[in-house]
Design a protein that fits this description.
Strand content: under 5%
Number of strands: 0
Shape: extended
Order of helices and strands: HHHH
Length: about 100
């Protein structure tokens, strides 16, 4: 099993594990897998401290994806702000019920 890890982990782990450098395509796939992994850890966080830590990990993966795709954080944030203007935020806590189409 392969798992994308942070850059300093090979030095920290020493001889306890083997590491390889991924191809660009495998890296992109692994980043997206890591994003899902980190999102699940955010969902499972049961304390404020753990939530803060997991959100930081999630953002680090997001920033790696942005960098790999040559997208600036500002570019992404501009799109986010545009969606806020068009569709709003999540402050009102609405949940949509999908009606059956009988």
């Amino acid at each position: 099993m392969k798992k994308l890890v942070r850059d300093k982990i090979p030095d920290i782990a020493g001889d306890k594990a083997e590491f390889e450098v991924l191809s660009n395509d495998d890296y992109r796939t692994s980043l997206r897998d890591k994003l899902v992994e980190e999102a699940k850890e955010v969902k499972a966080a049961d304390t404020r401290a753990n939530l803060v830590e997991e959100l930081g990990d999630l953002e680090e993966v997001m920033r790696a994806i942005l960098d790999d795709a040559s997208i600036t954080y500002e570019e992404m944030d501009s799109i986010r702000q545009s969606k806020v203007m068009q569709r709003g935020k999540f402050e009102e806590k609405y949940a949509m019920k999908i009606k059956d189409e009988d």
